[in-house]
Amino acid sequence: MSERHDDVTVTAWALAAGAGDQAALASFVRATQADVHRFLVHRSGPAEAEDLAQETYLRALRTLPTFAATSSARTWLLSVARRVAADAVRTAVRRPRIRDLGADTQQALERVAAPRSRAQEAVLLRALIDDLAPDRREAFVLTQILDLGYAEAAEVCGCPIGTIRSRVARAREDLVRALRADSGGGSGTGSGAAPGSASGPGAGRAVRSAPH
């Protein structure tokens, strides 16, 4: 996994790249591509993430010369990625489809009553995050997985900080309910789980440290 650089360094690379520095451009792309791809996987699904990431960088490179660093380059780039994903939804041919969760996720979901390893819990949690309401999933991924501050996430989403805080709190509640329902082996959905349902040994820990 590539080293995570601080925002000051990444922003300096973006400014230099906008001025024509090719080495800085290469550093900027390397430093941000993992976060962009991870965000788009959660935003649009793994099947679309690669193409959307490429479009994100194409758009970003066209506007880098006008980037004024009023926010960090990472925040600015994730805003571009969000617009790319939204445009893809608006222009896509709408047809029913099932999100590709992968074989490991399907196995975990089919054996909800069986004891799970930490790895299986991580796979299941990733599926539960993908099933969150889009606004809540986006806020949760930005702040809890990509480590953006609430103010930065609000800038990416174009909404007040309080809205981000509320969405993250609701996302956590949704995840805890779903994990409790899953650990209890009940047949109902997460929203129907009783507040006192038993939680699996790693459930609370998993919500606090969602898989990257």
TrEMBL record:
Residue ranges of every copy of the RNA polymerase sigma factor 70 region 4 type domain listed in the record: 124-175
Protein known as: RNA polymerase sigma factor
Keyword Transcription recorded: yes
Xref: InterPro entries: RNA_pol_sigma-70-like, RNA_pol_sigma-70_dom, RNA_pol_sigma70_ECF_CS, RNA_pol_sigma70_r2, RNA_pol_sigma70_r4_t2, RNA_pol_sigma_r2, RNA_pol_sigma_r3/r4-like, WH-like_DNA-bd_sf
Membership in a protein family: Belongs to the sigma-70 factor family. ECF subfamily.
Region (Disordered): 181-212
Lineage, top ranks: Bacteria, Bacillati, Actinomycetota, Actinomycetes, Pseudonocardiales
Organism of provenance: Pseudonocardia parietis
Keywords assigned by UniProt, alphabetized: DNA-binding, Sigma factor, Transcription, Transcription regulation
